[in-house]
Input
Amino acid sequence: MRFIDTLPILILDRDLRIMKVSQYLVDMLGYTDSELYEEDITLIFDKNIKNLLESQSFLCTLKGKTGELYKPYVISQKLYDLNGALSGYLLQLVNQTLPSFKEDFLTFNTQNIKMKKMLERASLVAQSDVSVLIVGETGTGKSKLARWIHFHSNRSKENFVSVNCSAIPETLFESEFFGYEKGAFTGAVNSKPGKVEVADGGTLFLDEVGDLSLISQAKLLIFVDTKEFERLGANRIKKVDVRIISATNKNLLEEIKSGNFRSDLYYRLAVIKIEIPPLRERKEDIPLIVNSFLYRKNKRMTTEAMKFILERDWYGNVRELIAFLESVSILTGSKGIVELKDLYEEIVSFEPGVDKVKVDEEFLFSEERRIIEALKKAKGNRKEAARLLGVSPVTLWRKMKEYKIQI
Output
C-alpha cells in the first residue's frame, strides 16, 4: 500500500484501533509506527471522533506527540470484509489551508448572476445564528452550501454534523438525534450521545428534512423551539447551542398542503430560505466546473467536447456532471486531452440524415457501466480496477456481486 504513504490516511479496525497510518501522518505527528499500532483512535484524535465517524465528513482536533494541535477536515469511509460485515474505517484528512480543500468545500466557481446573489445572501446569513432552509433540485450542491455557511460563520471551529433524514427510520429518530443511556433498550451496552449533542456549539445539518415522518417532525419541532432534549433512558434534560441548517429537494409548501409536513416546523426551519438554481439555468458555470475538475486530473477538454457538454441539460445537475467527468477521466486513462469521441464512444448511435447524437443516458451515468469499463481497462485485475474507480477492492467486490458482473 505504498500509495497510502504519500497521503494523510489512516485505517481503523471495527473497535476503532489504529491498524495502519501513512508515513505522511507518522512524520507529521512525530510518532513511530509501533507507538500507534493497535492504539485507540483517541490517542491522536479528540474523543468526539467516535461519535462523528458515522457522519462521513466532519471537523475534529488531531494531536501530535509533543502537543501540536491540528484541525483537519476528516472524510470517513466504512470498510467491509468479504462477507459484507463491517471491518473498520478508512479516514482521509484534508487540511483546510490546502487550495484543493478550499476549492472543493469553501468556494463556488460561478459567473452566474443568480448564483452570485445567492452566495451574497448566504454570506449575510452566515454571520447570524438563524435557521436556514436550502432548497434546490437533487445534485445542485445543497450540502456543499450548508458547509459553506458553516465555514464562514463564527462556529467554523466547531463540529458540522450532517444527518441524512431520509435514512433514519421513525422508530430510531430519538436514539439517533438525542442519544441514549446504557441499558435504555436491548443492545444499549454503552451510553451514546445523539447528533444534536455532538453538534453542540456548531452546526446541525438536516439533509432531506422533507422526508421525516410527521411523528419525527413533532419531536424535532420541540427541540428546535427549546434546544433542549433528553437521552433515551435518562431523566435529565440537556440543553445545547446549535445552529440548524436544513435542506430538501421537495416543495415543502406543497407538502404542507397535502398534509405531509408541519407548517409550524417549516416556519421555524425556514427563517431564511435560500434556493440554489439548477445547472441548466447557469450554463456559463459549466466550463468552470469542467476545467477545474480536469485540471486536478492533469487533463483538458477540446472545444468540440466542451460544446457537447454545454448542449446538455444535466437534469442531475452538478452531481451528474461530476459523475460523468469522473467516468470520462477513468476511461481516458493517461490521455491528457479529452476529445468529443471520448464522451460518447461505444454508447451513442447516429440516425441517418439527422445531425444529432443520441446518448443512452441511463447507461452513461450508471455505476454498473463505470465498473465494467474500469475492469476492461484493468484487464480483469480487480485491485487495479478498484484503484481506477477510487474505491477499495472490497467495495468493488460487493458492487460486482450486486450487479452480477462476471470477469
In short: The CA atoms of residues 58 and 83 lie 28 Å apart. Residues 96-103, 346-365 have pLDDT under 50 and may be disordered. The longest helix spans residues 317-331.
